[in-house]
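User: I'm writing a tutorial on reading structure tokens. Could you give me a worked example: one chain, its sequence, then its tokens, then a sentence or two explaining what the tokens reveal?
Assistant: Sure. Here is the example chain.
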Amino acid sequence: MDLQSPYETVFDYTDFFSLARAYRSQVNSMLFLGLGGGSAPKRLWRDFRGLRLQVVELDPAVVDVARRYFALPDDPRIRVDVEDGRRYLVREDRRWDAIAIDVYFDDGIPFHMTSREFVELVHDRLVPGGVVVVNVIGAIAGNGSKLFRAILRTYRTVFPTVAVHPVDGGTGYQNVMLVATDAASPSKAVLLSRWQRVRAAAPGAPDLRDAILGRYEREIPLDDVPTLTDDYAPTDALLVD
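And here are its predicted structure tokens:
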């Protein structure tokens, strides 16, 4: 975090969560699974005054650190609950316009939040036409790509549209954002036009032109990776392919 500008984002991938507003023009409620320092939710809280945010974080120490040192707002529009994200979705049956997923350990990802059953649960917690934005760390092709491609394959068993937005461009190891929805995939021109209108109403919102134009359009082979399930989700093995 920049101490002089605590609501500005330092890592590019955090801005990509705002793609939810490009794929779905009306986002009034948004659920975040995973808090970290709170960079993405607090930026959205600042940029979009009518947006109601719910954050779910497993570790209470992370919430304490975010509030003490990372300027996470104490405001009714950004509520934080301490709980496992999947258990929260099982317990809480409300529906959201958008759901953001950013859940990582130091050296891996919780397998129970990658499986088809989990993705089906996420799908059930969206309003019709809602959108999911998922941060995945990995490569699109070549070495280090199997976990990303398995997660992509899994999401595509549930959502008809799963767009791929690499944060750094290319196919190498990086943050890759998946945007999943039941709606048809808008063209890049439509996304740019929508985002222009969003920024006209919310001038503080990030510039997503490069994020939109960088959407990966080539076919990604998935035949050599599994669909992840509660019975079989070898995420650690796929990390070190």
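What the tokens reveal: Strands lie at 29-33, 52-57, 78-82, 96-101, 126-138, 161-166, 174-181. The mean pLDDT is 95.
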